[in-house]
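Working notes for the structural subgroup meeting. M.R. asked for a predicted model of this chain before we commit to crystallization trials. I am recording the input and output together here so anyone reviewing the notebook later can reproduce the run.

Input as submitted:
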Amino acid sequence: MELKKKIPETVESYISGFPEDIQKILKEIRATIKKAAPEAEESMSYQIPTYKQNGVLAYFAAYKKHIGFYPTPSGIEAFKEELSVYEYAKGSVKFPLDKPIPLDLIAEIIKFRILINHEM
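Returned structure, recorded in token form:
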């Protein structure tokens, strides 16, 4: 009989489900987003951490070899040049775990997403 993995209901429980080295990275990303968007609502959506302020700002998730960061297509498009050193797609970017996570860039993207959502 296979045991079902408990689905995290909070960002804290999501983060605590990872090894300590990954938890540290996830906590840094979380703190970066909260500092860049102090009024954003933090929740879980699609079983990953989600930040909303007048709409979605971004999601993030940990994987075996990377952190997935999902700032919607506008967040990727506006920072295409800065993100060109990473694997990215229409609404997502992969930050490899064997390289420093670009926290300053994440903060810039979040601030941009706040402006975009405010204009809508």
